[in-house]
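hiii, so i know i said id send this last week but things got crazy w the move. better late than never?? heres the sequnce for the chain we talked about at the cafe, plus the structure i predicted for it. fair warning i was half asleep when i ran it
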Amino acid sequence: MPVVVADLDGDRYLVSMLGENADWVRNVRAAGGRAVLRHGGREHVLLREVDLARRAPILRRYLHLAPLARPHLPVDRRAPLVEFEAVAARYPVFRVEPAPRP
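okay and structure toks below
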């Protein structure tokens, strides 16, 4: 599945534009956050779920980068953070980290 990786303050994030019920969200949670990203090559990563209180600026950045996601999030990409905070609980956000070495 193609995803848009949102960058913010030196970190990378994945956002579920379809909310909690997206298959990939359930799969990541079931796998304890372990995942493989493919972009030219394979990158083994650990996806850590972001606390609700920290999601708003990430969601806003994501909407700037992912125009196809805009119909799925009921907030304008230029809206103030308070509007993103109001919907943040409906959209899981995961920080992309390098996978620990075995």
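btw DSSP finds three helices and five strands in the chain. thought thatd interest u
miss u guys!!
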